[in-house]
Amino acid sequence: MYLLGYDIGSSSVKACIVEAETGKIVASDFAPKVEMQIIAEKQGWAEQNPEMWWENLKLAHASVMQKSGITAQEIAAIGISWQMHGLVLTDKNCQVLRPAIIWCDSRAVPYGEKAFKAIGEEKSLSHLLNSPGNFTASKLAWVKENEPEIYTKTDKIMLPGDYIAMRLSGERSVTVEGLSEGIFWDFKTKSLSDDIFNYFGFSKEIIPEIKPILGVQSHVSAKAAAELGLREGTPIAYRAGDQPNNALSLNVFNAGEIAATAGTSGVVYGVSDKADYDPKSRVNTFAHVNYTPENERLGILLCINGTGILNSWLKRNLALEGVSYAQMNDLAAQSPIGARGLSVLPFGNGAERVLENRETGCQIHGLNFNIHSKNDILRAAQEGIVFSFQYGMEIMQAMGMNIKLIRAGYANMFFSPLFAQTLANISGATIELLNTDGAAGAAKAAGMGIGFYKSNNEAFASLTKLKIIEPNITEIEQTKAAYQAWKKVLEK
Fold it and tell me: How many CA atoms lie within 13 A of 72 on its CB side?
């Protein structure tokens, strides 16, 4: 018996097949092999065609089926993870009306700020646990005002994973986790937010049926079965945004547990059992994967948009043709802690929530043509990303999070020993790097959704620690000094 997981990112779509009994990954792949196109018609805009996600899902799916050698009849359930905060609009015939406005699009910031003030800051934070900010509801408000002909044709809205579930099942639905990340959910009334719908003038009819996060939501249709080579009727039994799903993949379910990821964007995600919020809404609180109205489990999410995308930009533009990321890490390690006084602010990928939705752009400070080399720039970039994590974690700590242990998948920026060690040094936390990814987590969660696994500990019993990084006491003071210098530049 096998479980199938899909992870719909903004760079690629991943598919993974897990053997249910052992938890072993038997096949994993992604498509395309180059980053998917992001459409940016204006500065601060970011859109993708949802059909592109589906086409790349088919490619990744075909690959893992071929690699695994299993049959469609052996797949017991499907789980889906997706890039958070996107907006997909569909008409009465389930046809997409415009490209999806994705997570790193900044155009809706003014709409969210006006709503925050109009609804009332205290009421927004106490009910929504966030400012409407640049999230899905505010993006829909932008469409309503700027593309009224599209808005009037809109029958249902969805997040990216909901779109994939629709393509698989032919049915449209959402989850409370998705609604909370879109800022449509009221955590006090435990229902759709009257404040949001009334202020923006949305009809609640645009929200599809609400399904459980973990549990059978729908089944693969005959059409999708024929298109993918799946069994008609295969249950879709789990759906969540990529950061709650990343935490799930690392078996982070309970209050006080912390997960991190550092792909295109970077996230530190802590689970809480209290409906808490940052007064400035610089970090966000959403429903976690095991949230129910009766048993609240919430994820406090710090997101830094400019993370791995900074590293990839440097690779493309710093005359590093033919140099691998591993070699870049080696070059960075040749520069001393603090990169000889060089500081990089990594905020070049849209408005940053942790900076109160300011869009500062990436900045390099202290560059001296007689001292610095590419090694220093590479190190300062990695340190800058870590320091942006620490800046946000200080906000989380002020909310009561005790960050002593951070779990992360052994992937992306965490492949860099320098990156992981700097994070351990500045945070004081132990870093555990595990053998998992979002697609594998979604597959195992589908096993929970159909009741094959009786608990999260059973589902993730096969997780193994690949590396453990402790703070290096001989480097802590230098790292703290470099952080304070970086923070001084930021706060200017």
Answer: 16
Q: 229: alpha, beta or left, given left = phi > 0 and alpha = psi -120 to 50? A: left
Cα 336 to Cα 105: distance, rounded to the nearest angstrom: 36
| Whole-angstrom distance, CA of residue 199 vs CA of residue 216 | 33
Q: What is the pLDDT of residue 437?
A: 85
* Mode of pairing for the β-strands spanning 405-409 and 258-262: parallel
Give the pLDDT of residue 77: 98
What are 242-274's pLDDT values in tens digits?
999 999 999 999 888 999 999 888 999 999 988
Residue 194's CB: how many other CB atoms inside 10 A?
12
Which SS3 state, helix, strand or coil, does residue 384 take?
Answer: helix
DSSP 232-291: TT-EEEEEEEHHHHHHHHTT--STT-EEEEESSSEEEEEEESS----TT-SSEEEE-TT-
Task: Name the strand (E) or helix (H) holding 300.
Answer: strand 298-304
Q: Which two tokens stand for residue 16?
A: 């993974």
How far apart CA 278 and CA 286 sit, in angstroms, is: 12
Task: For residues 202 and 144, give the distance between their C-alpha atoms in angstroms, rounded to a whole number.
Answer: 9
302 neighbors 352 (Cβ within 8 angstroms): no
**Strand, coil or helix: 193:** coil
Pseudo-torsion of CA 88, 94, 98, 101, nearest 10°? 0
Alpha carbon distance, N-terminus to C-terminus of the chain: 57
Structure tokens at 311: 């590293």
For residue 32, cis peptide bond before it (omega within 30 degrees of 0): yes
The pLDDT of residue 441: 96
- Could you give the C-alpha distances from 47 to 67, 280, 406, 440, in angstroms and in order? 32, 27, 32, 26
Convert the pLDDT of each residue in 48-91 to its tens digit: 999 999 999 999 999 999 999 999 999 999 999 999 999 999 99
Q: Which positions of the chain have pLDDT values less than 50?
A: none
